[in-house]
Amino acid sequence: MKTWYQSLQVAFTFIGTVVGAGFASGREVMQFFTRFGHWAPLLIVLATSFFVWIGAKVMLVAAEIKAKSYEDLNKHLFGERYGRWVSHGMLLVLIAVNAVMLAGAGSIFSEHLNLSYQSGLLITMFACYAVLQNGMKSIMTINTFVVPVMIVFTAVLLFDTLASPGTDHRAALGVDVSPWAAWLSPFLYAAFNLAMSQAVLVPMGSAVADPKILRRGAWLGGIGIGLMLLAGHLTLAARMPGIAEFEIPMGGIALEFGAWIHWIFVLLIFMEIFTTLVADVFGLTLQIEERIHMSKKLIIGVLLLFCFFVGQFGFGPLLSTLYPLFGMLSLGWLFLMGRDKALQGGVRPPSPPIP
């Protein structure tokens, strides 16, 4: 029972790291899947297979080489010299992604809580700074609570959507888009999210170390991400194109259920954004600390302040511009991670049966 609980903690942290501002708000699902119409379910299945396979490999390799941060993993994949440069690039990308997370929190405050965008940024910054004082333990604890509740509410929205007339027809509509763009989308989505998740998956893999727990956690987490993607897609597709006008589409859908459900769901969306922001800033802090001699508290403060200034561009423009671009940049990392053969000892890539 203890190992299963630890596997669930790994799985929930994996899900919570991926389910960030873009995913929880619905913008990311719409950008990479829903806009491709009847192709979307197949694209989601393909992306899910990458999350299970590569997610497991990241944690298993990290445990095998005893990586302290994602730079150790990149040096393992690309060599000492190029691994350092890849890590420099990922450092900049992660900082930009954190700015998107913070902007997403600001949009929730302005669009659904009748507070100013700037208030949302500042409140989220201070809360993130406070939580990060307890490190990885607090990150796993928060995700163990937030992710299951988010799954339940996503399921509620899905069941209501499926019960509505005309849902099957709208979700199966074809769209006038390039097949190349459609089939490239799950690679971009998985590459981007897995590359960014290194900041958490690598130190977690080293901390847990047990291959059985990590492998099982990757399966549970990867499949959980896939099911949430599918549920989010079906919920959004049934309300297209009108729902695309919202900065936070899932929050707009929650309005249909009345005030109480709307407030609870908006809070959950915020918590999902918040948990990813906390996890990514934690990983960045570890990485920067290896390069410069500065206190963790100061590094966290500087990172959050930088994200505040970048966040002034707004959530929608940042996500739609940066995420596909970062996905393209991450494809090389995904390829090298998939072909890595350097696992030794008792650590092996995951096989279909869950131990």
TrEMBL record:
<feature type="transmembrane region" description="Helical">
    <location>
        <begin position="260"/>
        <end position="286"/>
    </location>
</feature>
<feature type="transmembrane region" description="Helical">
    <location>
        <begin position="298"/>
        <end position="315"/>
    </location>
</feature>
<protein>
    <recommendedName>
        <fullName>Membrane protein YkvI</fullName>
    </recommendedName>
</protein>
<dbReference type="InterPro" id="IPR038728">
    <property type="entry name" value="YkvI-like"/>
</dbReference>
<feature type="transmembrane region" description="Helical">
    <location>
        <begin position="321"/>
        <end position="338"/>
    </location>
</feature>
<keyword id="KW-1133">Transmembrane helix</keyword>
<feature type="transmembrane region" description="Helical">
    <location>
        <begin position="85"/>
        <end position="109"/>
    </location>
</feature>
<feature type="transmembrane region" description="Helical">
    <location>
        <begin position="183"/>
        <end position="205"/>
    </location>
</feature>
<feature type="transmembrane region" description="Helical">
    <location>
        <begin position="115"/>
        <end position="132"/>
    </location>
</feature>
<feature type="transmembrane region" description="Helical">
    <location>
        <begin position="144"/>
        <end position="163"/>
    </location>
</feature>
<keyword id="KW-0812">Transmembrane</keyword>
<feature type="transmembrane region" description="Helical">
    <location>
        <begin position="42"/>
        <end position="65"/>
    </location>
</feature>
<keyword id="KW-0472">Membrane</keyword>
<feature type="transmembrane region" description="Helical">
    <location>
        <begin position="217"/>
        <end position="240"/>
    </location>
</feature>
